[in-house]
């Protein structure tokens, strides 16, 4: 069985206690573990796959909390670093009733950006490496670490998975952000993109043109997530749309991370990257169920179901067919 190895940011999401207010008017916050690549590792671990998180937190109380949280879910944190010069990243984000996003990221830099990581890269060999774009911004050690790991991965039979997971709030220079993402697309064997991110990445407005543009890159599987409508999956030859399940949605935070985490967990268990569209269809059904269940509770990591809950849900849906 392969391992799922995630690299990138692990941070504290300060969730406002009231929805719809501007940050300056919010009366309090609740701390939650966050960070897309870390969410993916938790999803894989919850489904019984070995997962390893690579990244840094500060040598502070929030860093303790985050490492404890990952360990609770069974994610291996032995290669993480604790920074004594920068604190754990904090993100305060709220959506006002008018749909405006108010945000403050404490990241100047934060510990996650300083991760130098792994001298011996052999833990990546023959495994699955997942990364996102938030940790590719700026001129920090973490960017070099990504480049070092990705170059190694390409020559050591590592399956590389990339979910750009765009966070425009993190950069005012959107041109550089877009170019940065483009520079990393070629590393991906599995490329997962939310449908609403396609225009930013490809510069095209029409879906067909966006996919055509993405076809110029060497991915083996392209996954376009469609929110409540499920996913559109492509191999180089075929494609299939797999609808999601109707659930009572409470919070969609981390649904995309849950989806790709569950998908990578299945690839890891079967020890290979499927290119047969029927196998991909089966994987997508399981991932849709896992992600749909994640939306039925608040938060990301804690909202993800375990294997028993997932199987019960799938069994129930099968019986209703
Ligand atoms: P992010 O979590 O960053 O928004 P994303 O844009 O990839 O990532 P979505 O496309 O919103 O995420 O959702 C990912 C997957 O979660 C979908 O493909 C679907 O399987 C499931 N999902 C999301 N929203 C719903 C919903 N309302 N009902 C059922 N399933 C959902």
UniProtKB/TrEMBL annotation:
What the entry lists under InterPro entries is as follows: Carboh/pur_kinase_PfkB_CS (IPR002173), PfkB_Carbo_kinase (IPR050306), PfkB_dom (IPR011611), Ribo/fructo_kinase (IPR002139), Ribokinase-like (IPR029056)
Q: Give the CDD domains listed for this entry.
A: bac_FRK (cd01167)
Provide the species name. Answer: Paracholeplasma manati
User: Which Pfam families does the record associate with it?
Assistant: PfkB
Q: Which UniProt keywords apply?
A: Kinase, Transferase
Q: Which SUPFAM superfamilies match?
A: Ribokinase-like
Family listed = Belongs to the carbohydrate kinase PfkB family.
Q: Where is the Carbohydrate kinase PfkB domain?
A: 1-305
Q: Which PROSITE patterns match?
A: PFKB_KINASES_2
Please provide, alphabetically and separated by semicolons, the GO molecular function terms listed in this UniProt record. Answer: kinase activity
Protein name in the entry: Carbohydrate kinase
């Amino acid at each position: 069985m392969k391992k799922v190895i995630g690299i990138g940011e692990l941070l504290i999401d300060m969730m406002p206690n009231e929805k719809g207010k501007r940050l300056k008017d919010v009366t309090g916050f609740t701390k939650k573990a966050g960070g897309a690549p870390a969410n993916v590792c938790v999803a894989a671990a919850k489904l019984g796959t070995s997962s390893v998180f690579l990244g840094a937190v500060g040598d502070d109380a929030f860093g303790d909390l985050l490492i404890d949280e990952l360990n609770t879910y069974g994610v291996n944190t032995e290669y993480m670093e604790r920074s004594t010069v920068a604190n754990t990243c904090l993100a305060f984000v709220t959506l006002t009733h008018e749909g405006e996003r108010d945000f403050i990221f404490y990241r100047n830099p934060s510990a996650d950006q300083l991760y130098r990581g792994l001298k011996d890269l052999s833990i990546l060999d023959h495994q699955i490496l997942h990364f996102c774009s938030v940790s590719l911004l700026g001129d920090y050690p973490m960017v070099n670490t990504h480049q070092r790991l990705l170059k190694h991965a390409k020559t050591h039979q590592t399956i590389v998975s990339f979910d750009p997971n765009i966070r425009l709030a993190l950069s005012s220079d959107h041109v550089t952000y877009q170019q940065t993402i483009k520079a990393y697309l070629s590393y991906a064997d599995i490329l997962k993109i939310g449908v609403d991110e396609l225009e930013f990445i490809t510069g095209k407005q029409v879906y067909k043109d966006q996919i055509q543009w993405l076809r110029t890159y060497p991915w083996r599987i392209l996954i376009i997530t469609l929110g409540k409508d499920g996913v559109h999956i492509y191999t180089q030859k075929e494609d299939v749309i797999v609808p999601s399940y109707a659930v009572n949605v409470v919070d969609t935070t981390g649904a995309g991370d849950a989806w790709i985490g569950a998908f990578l967990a299945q690839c890891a268990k079967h020890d290979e990257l499927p290119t047969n569209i029927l196998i991909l269809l089966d994987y997508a059904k399981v991932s849709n169920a896992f992600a749909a269940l994640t939306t039925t509770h608040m938060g990301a990591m804690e909202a993800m179901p375990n294997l028993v809950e997932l199987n019960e849900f799938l069994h129930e849906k099968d019986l209703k067919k």
